[in-house]
Structure formats: C-alpha cells, structure tokens
Amino acid sequence: MKQYLELVNDILKNGEKREDRTNTGTISKFGIQSRYDLRDGFPLITTKKVFFKGIVHEILWFIKGDTNIKYLIDNGVNIWNEWPFEIFKKSKDYNNESLTEFIEKIRKDNNFAKKHGDLGPVYGKQWRNFNGVDQFAKLINDIKTNPFSRRLIISAWNPAEIETMALPPCHSLFQFYVSKDGYLDLQLYQRSGDIFLGIPFNIASYSLLLTLVALECSLKPRYFIHTIGDGHIYLNHLDQINIQLSRTPMPLSKLIVDFNNKSIYDIKFEDIKIENYQSHPSIKGKVAV
C-alpha cells in the first residue's frame, strides 16, 4: 500500500496547519488523489491492522438503507457510536450515562435504540431514498442496461437534509465506469478525509463496494480512484502516523466473496472473507467528533 504512505508523506510535506471544527487542529492538503488496482490484491492497509469486520458490516448497512447504529452494535461494530451519543447528551433523556452505558442501552432496549440510535438521513438513506429515488437500485440497473453512461453516479450529499444528519457525509459522491473489455472502475469524491483513522477504512470499504457491484453486474473490478477534498492528519495522530511510516508494507490480501445464486441485496457478512491478510499491529487513535 505504497499509495497510502505516499499520500501521508505528501500531506506532511505540503500541507498546512489549520484549526478545525473539532478544535483538535490538523495538517491539511486540499485536492489529492490515489489509484488502487484491485487486480494487484485487495487494498487493505498493512502498516497497521484494519478492522475488516467493521468495513463489511458498514457497507452492508449502507446497502440496506439502514441509518440506525443498532445493527452495527449488535454485530460488534462501534465505529459510529460517538455521534448519536453526543446528540443523546443534549436530550432530556440523558442522565449522565457514559458512552459504554449508552451502547448497552442501544443493544438491549429496542425502543431506546429507535429513539436515540438513529443518525438521521445519512448514507444508507440517501443511497436508497434520495428525495424518493432509490439511487442504488437505479445504478445497478443502469450499469446492466446502459453500461457506457456517464451518469452512473450516487450522491450522499443532499442539501435539503444535511442539517438533520448526525454527520454530513464525508464520502459524498461516487461514480462508476465500465470499460469495453468488461472491467468496472469506481471513483469516490470524499469532501473530508481523516488520513489516519478514516481513509484506510474508506479505501477498503469502497473497494469492497466496487467488487460487490462488479459481481452483481457480471463485470471484473479494476480501479478504485480515491479523490479527497480536505485530506487531513489530526495533530493528535502525528505519533501514530510516524509509526506507520516507519513500517514496511506487507503483501496485499485477497478478497473472497461467495456470490453463488445471490444478488447484491442478499449478501451477508458470512459471504465475505479476506485471505492472507498480513499486517503490523493495530495503532489506536482518538476519533475527533
């Protein structure tokens, strides 16, 4: 994953220090792009261990159109918990619960989860119901019936609903491209990218999405092109980033999907596996909310 390390070095060398919404501070560069060829292997970062289980469940959650964290929590994925918790703390129901206690309430109490676990109309809602349009179903149909269209696009950025989202979409728009020789490419425009915590996750997430859509449409996954608006390294992640830079990348893993007699809407977590994933140990970092 030399592309990722090159991205990190570029931001450290050419970025600028900026204040940010979270009051953490960043080193930021605007307008950066990386390209990953899935024929070389699945682009799961090897300079630290990445939570592949969370990547799979989140993509399946998006495809379902779900926006409540209960599905994720029930499956041991806690990547979205902080945002609804911050909203809950401002509600009249808040009684000094810790984040851990909040998660347990989501897990055990369906009524509580329904009221306080929803993130608003975030990704899944926009993919499956953008002002009444099922963008995802339309995309799949268009790739199959009009593969050379230049309109194979899904947008998660819905200005009419931004203010009611717990977090406006960072990965805000993506577009597919079908080659004449049967390959499928995907370009993501990400308005904002946390280089240490978020970007390794996003690279693998959209590479998985590319693979699933390719299988559904009888195509071969090829390039994931990742375009980032504000790519930033939080100042409290600099030590972690430097540890990664000191590590030698390992060979890429292989993605295996059991797609026999299934559609993209039927795929379950158990159908998706990663083989030969070698990585350096995980590195913890605090998420900026």
TrEMBL record:
It is found in: Cytoplasm. SUPFAM superfamilies: Thymidylate synthase/dCMP hydroxymethylase. GO terms for biological process: dTMP biosynthetic process; dTTP biosynthetic process; methylation; modified amino acid metabolic process. Residues 2-289 form the Thymidylate synthase/dCMP hydroxymethylase domain. The keyword Methyltransferase applies. InterPro entries: Thymidate_synth/dCMP_Mease, Thymidate_synth/dCMP_Mease_dom, Thymidate_synth/dCMP_Mease_sf, Thymidylate_synthase, Thymidylate_synthase_AS. Signal peptide: none annotated. (6R)-5,10-methylene-5,6,7,8-tetrahydrofolate binds at residues 194, 288. DUMP binds at residues 21, 150-151, 191-194, 202, 232-234. Pfam families: Thymidylat_synt. CDD domains: TS_Pyrimidine_HMase. This is Thymidylate synthase. The lineage of its organism: Bacteria, Bacillati, Mycoplasmatota, Mollicutes, Entomoplasmatales.
